[in-house]
Design a protein that fits this description.
It is built from two helices and nine strands. By secondary structure, the protein is an alpha+beta fold. The strands form two sheets. The chain has a six-stranded antiparallel β-sheet. It is globular, with a radius of gyration of 17 Å. The termini are far apart.
């Protein structure tokens, strides 16, 4: 019987494959629960409404590249809305510079988001969904600033912004 040494490249390829499989499992589970939300469309209707990039994030729990969203650099007063159903999610007053490359907030608006356990990438995280359409927005972590200590790390493509 021959034994192979596991080198770093082999290990990283294996972890990458596991992450892809975990993400695929999450996206399937994400779509399966879409009926339980107030706003719902068929997959074809969502694809048409959102376009490929937003569909990947909101409906398949994808993630945009860090630093790619212009909303990460938005500093005006206003409100951030769900790009899927236009529900108000975050007041710009709760936005802060997290240094992560994604728009970050320390507090969601009341009755705006739904939280769900996410174990897709070999770690336990908390997924943030739009309360009304179930769109995947990002994740929330407990390393944010006062007063909440939370960091809602959002995909910019999952959001739209309007000034007041």
């Amino acid at each position: 019987m021959s034994h192979q040494r596991v080198n770093r490249a082999t290990l990283l390829r294996g972890l990458g494959a596991a992450a892809v499989l975990g993400t695929l499992g999450l996206s399937h589970a994400h779509r399966a629960k879409a009926d339980s939300f107030e706003v719902h469309y068929s997959e074809a209707e969502w694809r048409k409404r959102l376009g490929p990039e937003r569909f990947n994030i909101l409906r398949e729990a994808g993630t945009e590249a860090p630093g790619s969203s212009k909303l990460d650099y938005e500093h005006h007063n206003g409100t951030y809305y769900c790009a899927g159903c236009d529900l108000a999610l975050y007041d710009a007053k709760t936005k802060f510079e997290s240094g992560t490359g994604w728009p970050s907030f320390y507090q969601a608006l009341p009755n705006a988001v739904k939280l769900r356990d996410d174990n897709s990438l070999l770690e336990k995280r908390t997924e943030v969904l739009c309360r009304r359409c179930g769109g995947h927005l990002g994740h929330v972590f407990d390393d944010g600033p006062k007063p909440t200590g939370l960091r809602y790390c959002m995909n910019g493509l999952a959001l739209t912004f309007r000034t007041r």
